[in-house]
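Example (one chain per record):
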Amino acid sequence: MEVSHIQSNLNILILAAGLGTRMRSKVAKVLHRLGGRPMINYVCQTAMALMPEKIYVVIGYQGEEVKGAILKELDESLVEFIWQEEQLGTGHAVNTARKFFEGKDTTILVLSGDVPLIRPTTLAALIQKHRTHRGKGAACTILTVKLDDPTGYGRIVRDETGLFSRIVEQRDASEEEKQIKEINTGIYCFNSTKLFEALSKVGNENAQKEYYLTDVPHILIEAGESVALYQHNDPKEVAGVNNRMELAEMERILQRRIIKRLMLDCGVTFIDPNAVYINDEVLIGQDTIVYPNVIIEGKTEIGEGCIIRSGTRISNSKIGKDVEILDNCLIVDSEIADGCVIGPMAHLRGKAKLKQKVKIGNFVEVKNTTIGEGSKASHLTYLGDATIGTNTNIGAGTITCNYDGKQKHPTHIGDNVKIGSDTMLVAPVKVGDNAVTGAGSVVIEDVPPNSLVVGVPAKVKKILKQEESNAEELVETGSKKEV
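Predicted structure:
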């Protein structure tokens, strides 16, 4: 079914006010992360895909935090937050939205904030069933599913003709009713006018002294209204999260869904699909190969033809085409252009930006630094708050000394520069184009272009000609001989 066919006169109400005591957590249940995002965000994303007039979210426990998480993905104009100051049951939660629907005849889709894997197409089919039931639509339509073990769930009791009769909770069910495998998922469509009329008749004569939304369908039946059932065929899709075991199982299901999509739709190879962790927002290009024990998180984009070796974690980064990331690298909030080679055991962070065909080798850390095309830092180096030109080579053990104890300072290194091993660049400092530093130099003053500096502190020893062939030898050996 096309979701866009059902967008008119639809409002969505998401229940997200509870703590979720079985999570054994100080964090509201809907804020627990799934695939790197709060689970409530999946429900909101699905709701948006249905293109409703408005999304209403009932919040309570840690409501400001829930609101903040949702607004990171949804525009504030699209969502209305409703406070449930006391959590007095699902019926009470829905009733807090009454004032927004007074005098309005619309379809309300009620979702739970802890059912994150529900698909828009499933909800679209539910809404269509609701609107076309018996040719004129139902007052209420319940999404149901059959479980092999329905213990703990409210059973759907049908009459002799197969139509809805009532919902019976586990504690109230007879032995015969306990054998029923069709259960209530807690997802409903309602006619708004009839919903709130029925809610006015819901009582709290129960052990918990709460108002239950599950009482509404039976009240509607007694009032002569029609209640429809839409039975779905995938129990895992409509499952809720009540404890950490269920959260872990949900994560496993989501990971299978993400990796299946990347393999079948995007042409990505996973050497072992069961040994990687990929967030829901990650994009990976065709013919990229991902080895086992790789974690890719956040809003990461990886281009075509890349190789991501084992032990690597990538978060909120953009990686171009034909990039090879070797074993055990950490890449966070960084940008890597086409054709680069990273690692093994390299660390890129804090807006590191590598242009095309840059090589970053083992035990090199790059922070808030831009490195120009074709440049290399192959071993044991720290590059922080720096700008490095094209075709520049950074020798092993080089450090940009960017912090003076009070503030950070920049280092600028030009094109075609050769930085000798164990050079200390004490920022703020500039190294001009085609310059060379001898091994072990401590550079505290700007280095002119086309010059060789050596020593502690480094001093100019020679103005170099471009055709001089032994400049690279000077870099590696730190020799002070005249050329």
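Caption: The two ends are 78 Å apart (CA to CA).
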